[in-house]
Amino acid sequence: MGKRADVVLVIGGVIFVLEFKVGADTFDRAALEQAHDYALDLKNFHRGSHHLSILPILVATKALPKGMTSLHWAEDQVAEPVGVCPSELANLIDTKLAHLKFDPIEPSIWARSGYQPTPTIVEAAQALYRDHNVREISRSDAGAKNLGDTTDCLTGIIEHSKRNHRKAICFVTGVPGAGKTLAGLNIATTRAKDHSDEHAVFLSGNGPLVDVLREALARDESRREGISKSKALRKVVSFVQNIHHFRDEALKDSNPPDEKVVVFDEAQRAWGREQTTKFMQQKRGYLAFEDSEPAFLIRYMDRHDDWCVIICLVGGGQEINTGEAGLAEWLFSISKQFTAWDVYSSYRLDDPDYIWDEMTIAALSTVKVERKDALHLGVSMRSFRAESLSDFTGHVVENRPDQARQAYEKIAERYPIVITRNLNEARSWLRDKARGSERFGLIASSGANRLRPEGIFVKAKVDAPIWFLNDREDVRASYYMEEVATEFDVQGLELDWVGMCWDADFRYEQRRWKHYSFRGTKWQRTNADERQLYLKNAYRVILTRARQGMVIFVPVGNPVDPTRHPSFYDETFNYLLRCGLTVLQKNKM
After folding, report:
1. CB–CB of 110/10 below 8 Å?
2. In Å, what is the CA distance from 229 to each residue of 218, 223, 235, 241, 566?
3. DSSP string of 333-364?
4. What digits encode the pLDDT tens for the residues 242-290?
5. 182 in helix, strand or coil?
6. Which of 248, 532, 556 minimizes the C-alpha distance to 426?
7. What pLDDT digit, counting tens, does each position of 331-365 carry?
8. Is 4 in contact with 43 (CB distance < 8 Å)?
9. Are the C-beta atoms of residues 172 and 178 closer than 8 Å to each other?
10. CB contact set of 232 (below 8 Å; sequence gap of 6+)
């Protein structure tokens, strides 16, 4: 993952992680966080370190002696980082070994025990862009689907299409956080670098995701290669593209694209014919445009005379915006216009999570599909602590409190979720839980307009790259918890710890979920099935953004404010208690 501690010292039964700052005479926070991050990385991802005591130490070589300090250990036996000068190091180690109880470590067994990281999508993109293999940066435990199998399956389809001059489209399905984007990035990077004649590209209509990935890759490339960020960004742009810009290029001339392999992230969010036509005619000036987004994109790739492959990454329950057509338009386009294409999918493509209307079911029945097990990723890997989080979330939003409680019981020990009626308590919980550079922040539904009296302004758009990537010193970063991101900002991305803010747009009433939108001065019922689905999916998205844990803030409301009456929130709060969650207690972080 590009992380390399200066020294990992194994003595007796304790792991000491040493970070040296040569020439430094102070112990700045960034350096302490770096040492802490190394220790946490070992604890979470190195199998031999899971149950060991780990002490991170920052050695500033020009610092003056400051005397021994007491250690503060977390529940997982990772201590807060300690800063020392060189002359104090040996004494610190001797003193702590004398006072700690431990079983001896067999160093050779410890060293061979295996490193199995679960990176964020940003970390994964950086690692893949640096030529790491997907197997090197993902877990391989028996409980998780092997991303390598999916990669091998897709590679086999690409090579078959190339040899036999075929055009193919693949539908890769998966639960939220299962690694679909990671699989897509892996294919795009390996094909682009090992098969330069194919010009593979990763495409997404998710603007914030594209912006964050581009910025992260450019910063990393600039730092590693010693080039300007603008130069690094020019290289990155050809690898990660906004799907709308890719579409616009297709309209400039009639030639086929340079790319032979394209990966479309979140393919279920592609626009239908009405939305695409409206946008292209009004915003782009193409008055004759009358295609759906899937139809046009397949038509563009179909310009190739010999072969090409489209890989569609499909998430379940992820449609969150007007005009998003789900899988229907892809299937209709294939069945009506591109019948010569080979179609591959997982066995799960016809599950209700991916196909939720009769028209799409009918469309699927008209397409000849070759099914492959490896094209489904069934276990969430977003949270290395809670692989069943997506199951819990699904039960919550589908009004299945008993099943939700059972699902949460399986993850509660390793993945805390608490609820509170006090936003300041939620902020304090997040600050206390996060260690090292672990990222935390507040998120809410884009329809949460009556959180404004709490100081949460969903209408104030965040700058996604800054919010997700900048450090604690930047007031615009997520750490400050002054700016709140919505489902449109966070879909496809994640934080370590999340403060999820629940408003009255999706409220529990009379033992079922009710859907509202705030118009003018009051809440209005949302009756259209499509809009209800988008709202439910928005909450599904924001409930699955945390890797390590979450606090849910449900306001108390105000009895004199008809837009924030306590009854709008109390039933939701009580429902979440029925789902197995516990109330955040003061001073019990």
Report:
1. yes
2. 6, 8, 10, 17, 50
3. HHHHH-TTSEEEE-TTTTSTTT--SHHHHHHH
4. 888 888 888 888 899 989 999 998 888 788 778 888 877 776 676 667 7
5. helix
6. 556
7. 889 988 999 999 999 888 877 766 656 777 777 88
8. no
9. no
10. 217, 218, 219, 221, 222, 225
